[in-house]
Amino acid sequence: MPQHSPHELPEGDPFGADALPYGVFTTPGAPDHPRIGVRYGAYVLDAATATAERGSAYADLLDQPVLNPLMAAGRPVWQAVRAEIRGMLDDGTLPGGHAHPLDEVTLHLPFEVADYVDFYASEHHATNAGRIFRPNGQALPPNWKHLPIGYHGRAGTVVVSGTDVVRPQGQRKAPDEELPSFGPSRRLDIEAEVGFVVGTPAPARTPVPLDAFRDHVFGVCLVNDWSARDIQSWEYVPLGPFLGKSFATSVSAWITPLEAFDAARVAPPARDFPLLPYLDDSSAPEPGGIDIRLEVRINGEVVSRPPFSAMYWTAAQQLAHMTVNGASLRTGDFYASGTVSGPESDQLGCLLEITAGKGPFLADGDEVVITAWAPGRGGARIGLGEVAGRVLPAGGR
Amino acid sequence: MPQHSPHELPEGDPFGADALPYGVFTTPGAPDHPRIGVRYGAYVLDAATATAERGSAYADLLDQPVLNPLMAAGRPVWQAVRAEIRGMLDDGTLPGGHAHPLDEVTLHLPFEVADYVDFYASEHHATNAGRIFRPNGQALPPNWKHLPIGYHGRAGTVVVSGTDVVRPQGQRKAPDEELPSFGPSRRLDIEAEVGFVVGTPAPARTPVPLDAFRDHVFGVCLVNDWSARDIQSWEYVPLGPFLGKSFATSVSAWITPLEAFDAARVAPPARDFPLLPYLDDSSAPEPGGIDIRLEVRINGEVVSRPPFSAMYWTAAQQLAHMTVNGASLRTGDFYASGTVSGPESDQLGCLLEITAGKGPFLADGDEVVITAWAPGRGGARIGLGEVAGRVLPAGGR
């Protein structure tokens, strides 16, 4: 238990009144009543009961087992609910009777995932991975700087932070082996990513332009896109990753409203090619990058500090690309940035890159924790919820 | 209107008592009450009211706007419901008061799609497509005969037969062009496929062995996996198809129970490599192939008759592969076979193959209809519902 009372936010805590991420929690006393909470410091504000007590029009939207109804309500409602929650914290304290210490609640997968798409937006990662996967080919494929490459992942195996991840089994073939063999992955890896959750849907045939990004994206989370490199490298030509990824994708329990990152907007890297109009953000009114600073720890040791600001493709560009062919968006659609890697050797977002393809990769029992923060107003930090997971041996249930 | 009464099934009609596919329909008189129907000849039996009248224990499962609750109920229930429906038809007639002529109802997407996976299981298609997409490489990748290659598609854009398909726009780059351009696809294609719908879920870390296929797969449908070849060929390296496919995937309105194909089981082609145990069906008690005979018509003209019996990988192998890494299955998971192509020039399942990559591809206004049947008991035919769609010009809403 923290030493301070719910009525004080510790100095420098990144979960202050400018962060206020949403999650879904239960208490030991009501394990069958999942509902929406808002993180404040080391506490969870029960948003359902706190708003109901005040007779808020949004109390029903918050007394829900997933964020989807709130996300579907649209940006004006998101803004109104956030203002109402902030109003409760005006004196810097949590409203009495509605706060639970974080370590006394259970956090659940905060939204029902519709479609899950994973991008590949870091030039550093794509170049490094390309060299390792295709040593005799071009590291960066010719399309890479013209469009944000992405693919659909498995929505049904997205799990919340804290869920153990069992080492997957499957077909593996090392380059020097003649035939594939079956067994536990020998090259289990992480991918530190940032995820974006769609709230407002878009019907078919209505591409989402760059400047409508804020109307559709509800919030931001952290992602660990677990990857079995040996399964992936054997299976992925020509239709892309499948079983090397589909066993589990972990997301943080907290979804931080997009608005919380207003002070962290930064220009993306200079573009090497002029972009087609639907992707051209060179004259956008606000910069498309976000200065989110990730930290990856394995068994408590920091192995990397990947900078999200270095991503070549922005989340707005990814959304515009994903819908430009007329594909609809649903509430709960979820897309991840791809591995976040920066230019420096201590900024790489996966072990494939960190170890130059040689390993070691994850061992059974390893615990991976990814955390992040972004600059807020007046020197404050905006925290993102961590995404954590432990590797269990293959074959276990 | 058909000339015969609901009390007679025309001679040779493939939708007799051994087919009985399920769908979801509304009538003009009750457009807000979608419910489950069973096709019999040119009629829809209102399964909800017909079972309710008899006091069936399953009436509630059938008075639903999607098949998912019935699919989730498991194989013993599927068998019991089918037996009950067949019992109503014992004298070869439909129960009075519960039959609607097919052309007087509206058919809806029959199930809520969880995850959608598309495979690549025809050796003929994979070889032909490989030659066209990778003229300087190996046509069939080295992994192809060791595992059923597949990838996740977009579940949110699966549409029911009859839905118009708007020509997608996107980035296209012909091999002789230096830079990509933006515009409507110039190479819009079809892919004639057979789809399998999962009923009984499987928790994470419980791979579905070959012999549990029947316990999990509820039924079979036809699929048109619309494909924009120019968008696809520019985007698909290295992470697979994305926008070239994600604008629309059409499925038939009717899901035929797996059991209806018992008389159509055939051995798959001889395998060129021994398969790893989880895929080895050489000593399976029942053959894994299904003799479904497809027919593809464009604007009324037959362009191909692809044989599903020629598929190298079976649906049971695909399910075993999809779950061998520990990925869970959900009710509504849906997987398609990949383009069905046979060895002959009149058995190719897409225009890419039919025209050897040269086109012509689909023109605006073209109507594509895929139908199929399989051998049933005593020389009868088991019909599958058609999957039809018309191409609308790009940019329309």
From TrEMBL, chains A, B:
It is an enzyme of class 3 (hydrolase). The keyword Ion transport does not apply. One of its GO terms (biological process) is L-tyrosine catabolic process. Its cofactor is Mg(2+); Ca(2+). InterPro entries: Fumarylacetoacetase (IPR005959), Fumarylacetoacetase-like_C (IPR011234), Fumarylacetoacetase_C_sf (IPR036663), Fumarylacetoacetase_N (IPR015377), Fumarylacetoacetase_N_sf (IPR036462). Its EC number is 3.7.1.2. The keyword rRNA-binding does not apply. Pathway: Amino-acid degradation; L-phenylalanine degradation; acetoacetate and fumarate from L-phenylalanine: step 6/6. GO terms for molecular function: fumarylacetoacetase activity; metal ion binding. Ca(2+) binds at D118, E191, E193, D225. Keywords: Calcium, Hydrolase, Magnesium, Metal-binding, Phenylalanine catabolism, Tyrosine catabolism. It comes from the Bacteria. Mg(2+) binds at D225, K245, T249. Residues 117-391 form the Fumarylacetoacetase-like C-terminal domain. Residues 20-110 form the Fumarylacetoacetase N-terminal domain. NCBIfam families: fum_ac_acetase (TIGR01266). This is fumarylacetoacetase. It comes from Streptomyces mobaraensis.
